[in-house]
Amino acid sequence: MSPLDVLTEHGWNRELRASVRSVEALARHVTLTDDERRACAHLAAHGGLPLTLTPAMLSLIDADDPADPIRRQLIPTTAEQAPDPFAVRDPLGEEGLEVVPRLVHRYPDRVLLLATDRCAAYCRFCTRKRIVGQGPPTTWEHIEAALAYIAAHEEVREVIVSGGDALLLDDERLETLLVRIRHIAHVDIIRLATRMLAFVPSRVTPGLVRLLAAHHPVYVLSHFNHPRELSDPAGEAVRRLVDAGIPVLNQTVLLRGVNDDEATLTALFRQLTHLRARPYYLHQVDVAPGTAHFRVPLARAQQLMANLRGHISGLCLPTLVIDVPGGKGKVPVYPSAERGRDEDSVTLEGFAGGTGKYPLG
How confident is the model at residue 17 (pLDDT cuts 50, 70, 90)? Predict the structure, then answer.
């Protein structure tokens, strides 16, 4: 049976159970390199971010190409073990901003609820690899304490439900959570952060869409990094959501050897926009341990964005951001168009290379 056969024969929970979780199972689908085998053996011996690939993602991997962009995201290599002087266990400073267990209050008007510690598959560049997939699990007692905090803080207008992956919650648990949040009068927006549209697109059932639509305004924060992840089932999952009036905002991580070229980013952002999913953020990799080999030099990242500006529609362009280590928040790192200034004007360069002056006052 091929990995995709599971998609048509079973529901999304059975698809999850059919995921590959060991190097032996993975080797039946992918021709592993010696380096990948050593990395998997190190992971088995020492623990860490689990090895898990869903049938949907396995079906996208070129089994014989070690440089395959989907493979690079999900199968460990020994580069994860390389020392990195910038690496921080908790790069976003979430533990210091945790007001109750699993609830992070970083920005004044919004909170991050880590409603689960599990994902359907595990990206090797994960910013929360200190906890994700390894427990201890989020409990309903954690959720109750988080809801009590939110109810007591009227400045909180948005709740971002993440993890792990928000859509790993089954419909019953998710509905209970959404109902409880909606009973807090000062909460306006609910966001659900998920990679399931790529990892397990069958999760977006008609029942899930009805559930989310009943609690508007709900936004889905998707995560696609490469145009090949926008498979036909993934595209249908996006369409189901937006057809029901559920906005989909996509967050992409800029990854060396995966999507750090103009053609790949152009294809990804155009396909997302065609599906009516808004390219929202393009993230520089967070400085989590074992991720340095994915890091794109900042000057290169800014040049990529400069090269895209004007050549693809503004609808297609996300904001390039860095999440400042230590929990200081996201900041945009725009490529500058300024080429000089005098006391009266600034000289700006347009996308095609020409310059013009604009008054300062």
Answer: very high
Tokens at 58, concatenated: 């396995």
- Token representation of residue 230: 């926008």
Model confidence pLDDT, tens digit, residues 297-350: 999 999 999 999 999 999 999 999 999 999 999 999 988 899 999 999 999 999
| CATH code 3.40.50.300 for 95-338 | no
pLDDT for 9 beyond 80: no
Where are the domain boundaries for CATH 3.20.20.70 in the chain? 95-338
Mean pLDDT of the chain: 95
Percentage of residues in the chain having pLDDT higher than 70: 97
| CA 232-196-251 angle, 5° bins | 90
pLDDT above 80: residue 264: yes
**Residue whose C-alpha is closest to residue 114's, from 141, 146, 84, 88:** 146
Which single residue is written with the structure tokens 């409990």?
A: 139
Reference 222, options 194, 203, 199; nearest CA is 194
What is the tens place of the pLDDT at every residue in 60-73?
A: 999 999 999 999 99
Tell me which residue has tokens 């000057």.
Answer: 299
Nearest residue to 44 via CA among 75, 26, 23: 23
Q: Are 55 and 19 in contact (CB under 8 A)?
A: yes
Sheet holding 110-114, edge to edge: 98-100, 103-107, 110-114, 158-162, 189-193, 218-222, 248-253, 277-283, 319-324, 329-332
> Which residues are known to be catalytic?
106-107, 110, 119, 123, 126, 128, 286, 323, 330
Torsion angle of C-alpha atoms 35, 39, 41, 47, degrees rounded to 10: 180
